[in-house]
Amino acid sequence: QVQLVESGGGLVQAGGSLRLSCAASGRTFSTYTMGWFRQAPGKEREFVAALSWSDGSTYYADSVKGRFTISRDNAKNTMYLQMNSLKLEDTAVYYCAAGRGGVLRSDVRRRSSNYYAYWGQGTQVTVSS
Q: For the segment 19-45, what is each residue's pLDDT rounded down to a tens digit?
């Protein structure tokens, strides 16, 4: 079983920065794709970023490209989301997620919440004006 625990959310002014962490346990993640999703009130959960644990390849939603950076620390089994230049529309609950492992070649699947089997509990990010 895989456990994912997010931390690092909070209240920040527009233009500010936050770093989210996702501590993973229960498996080795060398073949996993892991991702960050977010869900704002009244909206569907949406893809933010993903990372291939094996080679470090990264993928971003257009809305965050150039502002957010996804990364990992293999030794700590931890994934991060550095969020800079935050906007009001970034306000949401942020979730980290892990796939079931194995090679993933489909970018469509990578960006779909349906692909991911394991989820954290979420951490609230609120951006104020």
A: 999 999 987 777 789 999 999 999 999
What region, left, alpha or beta, does residue 100 occupy, with left being phi > 0 and alpha being psi -120 to 50 degrees? alpha
What residue has token string 């569907």? 44
* Whole-angstrom distance, CA of residue 69 vs CA of residue 84: 8
CB 125 within 8 A of CB 90: yes
Q: Is 122 left (phi over 0), alpha (psi -120 to 50) or beta?
A: left
pLDDT tens for each residue of 69-128: 999 998 899 999 999 999 999 999 999 999 988 878 899 999 999 999 999 999 999 999
Q: Would you list the DSSP string of 75-103?
A: TTTEEEEEE-S--GGG-EEEEEEE--SS-
